[in-house]
Design brief:
Layout lengths: L1 H15 L22 H32 L2 H6 L1 H20 L13 H11 L2 H13 L5 E8 L4 E8 L4 H5 L2 E7 L6 H4 L3 H7 L6 H11 L2
The chain binds manganese (III) ion.
Length: 220
């Protein structure tokens, strides 16, 4: 019995080395961002879309471990795109949920401190920044994200966009401070094809104190 159970234990241990990625809980109810983002969108977005990225990331990471164990370089290379897409989806949504907060619980409260100063110095005012950010993000072709990032080299804020689920830092080097999902699944049930209306409303639930904390961490 002992000799039989050993290999099982060994293989269990080798798979237990890395824990699985899991869907993070939201800090608020699905309906808490209404009327800006509907409960229906939030529930599907979190429990279906984000969950799928997590599930697929775990599946492809397991395939990667198998390929690594076999020294199968061809499979290792072919898995990179799927890991980028699903890993990016997991990273991006994990930031997005924290970037939002219900009205009255921080959502839409003005930025303060260093973040406020930097926005005013670089863009003139919060309103001017929002106009530039929204214009860049409305213009994302197909599915993608609009970002406020921190450039650690020039020590300045940058507005950026990424395609698909490309994660900001891994693909541009900018540290993500604020990400806005402009995949149709993020707004279509409520705003139909009118992405600019979604981008106008979302500012009411942006959690600027979370954005400010990310800036503080990025500057460390
Ligand atoms: Mn999404």
């Amino acid at each position: 019995m002992l000799s039989r159970s050993r290999p099982i234990l060994t293989s269990f241990r080798s798979h237990a080395k890395r824990s699985k990625f899991t869907l993070p809980d939201l800090d608020y109810d699905f309906s808490a961002l209404e009327p800006c983002i509907s409960a229906e969108i939030m529930e599907i977005h979190h429990t279906k879309h984000h969950q799928t990225y997590v599930t697929n990331l775990n599946m492809f990471m397991e395939k990667l471990q198998d390929a690594e164990a076999k020294g199968d370089v061809s499979s290792i290379v072919s898995l990179q795109q799927a890991i980028k897409f699903n890993g990016g989806g997991h990273l991006n949504h994990s930031i997005f949920w924290k970037n939002l907060a219900p009205i009255g619980q921080g959502g839409g409260d003005m930025p303060s401190g260093d973040l406020d100063t930097m926005i005013k110095n670089q863009y003139g005012s919060l309103e001017d920044f929002q106009t530039k950010f929204s214009a860049a993000t409305v213009a994302v072709q197909g599915s993608g994200w609009g970002w406020l990032g921190y450039d650690t080299i020039s020590k300045s804020l940058k507005i950026a966009t990424t395609a698909n689920q490309d994660p900001l830092e891994a693909t541009t080097g900018l540290v993500p401070l604020l990400g806005v999902d402009v995949w149709e699944h993020a707004y279509y049930l409520q705003y139909k094809n009118v992405r600019p209306d979604y981008l106008k409303e979302i500012w009411k639930v942006v959690n600027w104190s979370d954005v400010a904390n990310r800036l503080k961490d990025a500057k460390k």
